[in-house]
Amino acid sequence: MVSIKDVAKQAGVAISTVSKVLNNYPNVSEETKKKVNQAVAELNFVPNSVAAALSSKQSGRVALLLNLGNVSQAVDEINMQYISGTISRAVELNLDVITIFDSMLKNKNLDEVVRYLRSQSITGLIIFGMSKDDRVLQKLIGAQLFKIVTVDAPIVNASSSSIWIDQAAAQYDVARKTLKENKGRSILYLAGKKNGYVTSERLKGIQRLADEEEIPLLIRNGAFSELQARNLTLRYARKKDIVVCASDLMAIGAMRALMDMDIFRPVCGFDGITLMGYAGKQMNTVRQNFGRIASEAVEELKRLLDGGEGQQMVLDYELVRMEYDDVLV
Amino acid sequence: MVSIKDVAKQAGVAISTVSKVLNNYPNVSEETKKKVNQAVAELNFVPNSVAAALSSKQSGRVALLLNLGNVSQAVDEINMQYISGTISRAVELNLDVITIFDSMLKNKNLDEVVRYLRSQSITGLIIFGMSKDDRVLQKLIGAQLFKIVTVDAPIVNASSSSIWIDQAAAQYDVARKTLKENKGRSILYLAGKKNGYVTSERLKGIQRLADEEEIPLLIRNGAFSELQARNLTLRYARKKDIVVCASDLMAIGAMRALMDMDIFRPVCGFDGITLMGYAGKQMNTVRQNFGRIASEAVEELKRLLDGGEGQQMVLDYELVRMEYDDVLV
DNA sequence: CCGCATACGGAAATCGTTTTCCAAAACCAT
DNA sequence: ATGGTTTTGGAAAACGATTTCCGTATGCGG
To answer: How far apart are the first and last CA of chain A?
Structure first.
């Protein structure tokens, strides 16, 4: 393997000089640079990032933690956007991503998880969709070994940042829009998984709407499950004017149930996934730009790794109405 | 940071001895092992894999190349199964995966791609869904720097293996089943993207069926696109008894078109993705177990990295009939 | 032309392992 | 005891970069 040493010899300069040229250090004359670059080209030299990491003690390695949740269509789409968004931006920023699923962490003891990350020289973590009191997350923060960026799970400390969209506002907005469009006077709300951050935020949003409008609000826990949403809809939808769901998948379940019952109720969802187009009816939903969120998360992590202070960022969302034609490719 | 040196001191042995214990080398007495392990525990020592990689020249780093193709729901689901299948197994085998999307490679010159992989000390590649004469793939093989496992793109050489399912047989089977169940006597076949390996294999399968049954076969190129499948169905479905599609997504497009036309034709797909449940009708399809394929690919790569010879593997598939209840969670 | 400041380039230590090679110790049969 | 194996443990040289520190050119003003 051709090393920096060979380049130095070929260029007739010292090893350290080559390193300086390679890393754009000052105090190297143009002439020397040229010599070095030529030697690099001639020898087709590629720096060994492993050696560089060891030497500089900066691995540039970052782990991406994903919550596979109850595996489903919807989650796949979201996770793929997270993954591709993260990786693309990371490569641009010269970070090196290894992907980890929470399912790989379950039934492992927490120390093992930390050991694994440490052994991999991982210095930064991007964590998607993990509730803020998840024990894994707590352990990772507690270890104080990593810079952490969480998405949709606000944590506050100097070496961590959080990014989220205002779930309460979004839930409020989409429900309100649906309510107004249909002149509804009561709401069936199918909530997400218990104890989740986004679940409780969205609950706040819908609660605020009901309070402001002074209309009845029936809340049932649908746990982000299509089947549960379906069953709850079959059971409760007749009694309320509109069905507001904490996720698109649930909205689809609700819509299907309504079609089976042969009654009409406006339904709205949350997430803006493609599957919405297959629900059979138009629906309002909240589009979160997951790719962009991921990309921002990477940038934020980079900032932390470069010594920046932790901060909180709120990104925007968009209300959309989805139907089949929107997804056809 | 606590290093192997500290462990050696604490245990009262030499560095090399610690290393031997850590890596299960022979010729270390039980007693010494115990001392070392105790020291490791006391100091909470975690080996630095970067240093190990540099020293041993075995990075254990592997890249996973994914074809995002025309980004869609279906592709997301398949890719997620590939990714999670790959990563889970890789961690078990102590390989270290970095994920790359072909979209990150487009409009990069090929040398850059190789340089990137080299600089990352990547020694093995798992490549999903890339046609065998893709220029990137060709370049990677040509570089002779990597052990490669391709999925659904047979290549033959000593440092490469390929895994695939028998696309022709699967296409034949599912189409035949659909034909027989419905006593059809003619076929409209909507094919996949031109020049793809799986496309041409599946074509062979459908062709064989038509030949054997001595029935008319109309082939149109639908490029794995839902919209194209829809349009082609609108145009040609009346003339044939059944519609055989080269992918589930196309099958859904076809089914929707038929519903719009208000005529009935049996449709079958290929892949077995969840989305099929939302098509509105039951359909036959071929279920490929993408997770298992990924897992096998990782094992095969490990074998290659350990010095094994390249080989070809054919995995099995399964005919299924999918409907809404199958996907409800 | 001298002296001083600055730009430039090089020698060498370092990062934390693995691995080779060798010496010492332990064992065994005679 | 002796000599010869076999275990066992240690010293030291890699691996391929980065980075610090220092000495020498170089430039410039006087």
So the answer is: 47
